[in-house]
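Researcher: Good morning. I'm working through a list of sequences from a screen, and I'd like to move beyond sequence-only analysis. For each chain I'm collecting a predicted structure so we can compare shapes side by side. This is the next one on the list. No need for commentary yet; just the structure.
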Amino acid sequence: MTRKHLFYLIGIAALALVVGRSLEFRRLDEKRDEERAARFSPAEYARDFWDNRLSAALDRPEAAAQMIRLFNTDMKAAIARGRTLGQSRVHAYLLQGTGRIVAVQKEGLLVSVLGDDPNPQILLCTGAYIAGNAVRDASGLIDVSSFSDTMKFNRISAEINRIVVQEVITPFLGQTPQVGMNVRFVGAAEVADEATEKTPLGEREGAEGPWHLLRVVPIRLEVAEKSEAAERGNPKFEIRNPKQIPMLQTEENPKPPAPSPSRLLPTVLPSGASVWIIGISDFEFVSDFGFRYSSFRASRSRIGLRA
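Model: Good morning. Structure tokens for this chain:
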């Protein structure tokens, strides 16, 4: 071997040593997992969780009144019904219930869900900021082991809580909840092992101390009276619009007839009453007080009815 060849071999070995130290050989799937983690967006994850996954967990919440009684009397049995993250001493629950607003405070509504107790047992969070991991953990749908670090796991909770404020609490406050109203809710709560050791839920901490309440983050929230009234409908008034009444096309009636502007629907009024008719229209408003309103032409006449 000539000196020239020896010089080349030494150069190649030195180059291989330098380059080899700067190279790292890794599995392609590991590299892709790292890139996916680097692109992780807590806001997008929380939005997908809220829109597409959370509803699956909301069909099996615990009754709030029943759980409060259980927290106060048998915490061990209550813990068995909750969800616990690892070895944590804090347990998460999905709860549902209907209760009466006892007080309205800046951080939330004090609500009584025990029919035989006028005092509040729940603080229904309706403030401008929500802290904690109640919704994330109570759902049981997000596994901490799926994340490379706990910071990302906790950022998901922050984004979920932001959605709660924007899409649950803010619209609800537009209904102007007041003391004495009933509210219907589905929400999440976190309860520690020792939560009721000194003071049961629904009692004061000391003679004149603050109420010891179960803090519930709402997921679904509405004023119960308004919802029930909407389900029953309004018995006093009726809106009729013939255009919204479907007419089937048959051989005897190949084409539904167009509404006639000169035809009035019969109206039965009390004896001696009178009616104002303002034009003729396809849309009419009928009330139990014996008058009809139709908006089409500006002509009008007064008609006296006999018994």
